[in-house]
Amino acid sequence: MHEPFIETDATGCLYDRRVRDRMNQDVPADEADSTEALAALRTASHALHTAMDRWLEHHGLSEGRMGVLWRLRHKESMTLGDLAEELDVSPRNITGLVDHLEADGLIERFPDPEDRRATRVRLAPAAKQKLAAVKEQMANQNSGLVAGFTNDELKELRHLCLKLVRNLTASKELEKV
Q1: What is the pLDDT of residues 159-171, one digit of tens each?
Q2: Which of 56, 107, 153, 162 has its CA 20 to 30 A from that of 37?
Q3: Confidence (pLDDT) at 135
Q4: Contact 115, 77 (CB under 8 A)
């Protein structure tokens, strides 16, 4: 699918015509590159999130539920607290996700034998089958998402995304001080 707002500039780089048109009105020239890059990242993030939601919906999952299953796939079990921490969500949110997965027969809860206050979860056999099917289809989906990228471009994309995450994490830490 071709997006009508994505065009190629004189240097051969893609750009979002809508963003560039708006930037010409009110963004200082020394902020243009960062503004345009972050706008492209937001557009890509939104498109990726929407595509992932639609794809997971076909499997009866949400991004949050898939995250729970994915975290548990190589573990015998986890506490709800550890799962919430790994997924960077609130304990209340993890409880809701686990409630749905348990109702769907994908997760099993059981008391933690070492801590009476804690509840542990593990994948049910049905989840292992679902994850195998999802993983196979995901490989096909991922190759389409990065079609036309060279290995060097993929490494650079990874590097730049994680550099941004590192900067965001550092700025969050500065806000706490």
Answers
A1: 999 999 999 888 7
A2: 56
A3: 83
A4: no
Report which of 32, 33, 40, 43 is spatially closest to residue 15, judged by C-alpha positions. Answer: 40
Q: Identify the DSSP state of 31.
A: G
Predicted pLDDT of residue 160: 94
Work out the number of other CB atoms within 10 angstroms of the CB of residue 120.
19
Contact 80/98 with Cβ under 8 angstroms?
yes
Please provide the average confidence, as pLDDT, over all residues in the chain.
89
Buried-state track 83-109, b at ≥16 Cβ within 10 A, e below 16: bbeebebeeeebeebbebbeeeebbbe
Task: List the chain domain ranges.
Answer: 63-124
For residue 95, give both structure tokens.
Answer: 């409880």
Q: Alpha-carbon distance 21 to 151, whole Å?
A: 32
What pLDDT, on the 0 to 100 scale, is given for residue 10?
94
CA distance 24 to 29: 9
Tokens of 177: 């001080």
Task: State the pTM of this model.
Answer: 0.72
DSSP letter, residue 57: H
Residue with token string 């919906």: 57
CATH fold of 63-124, please? Arc Repressor Mutant, subunit A (1.10.10)
**Distance of alpha carbon 98 from alpha carbon 2, whole angstroms:** 38
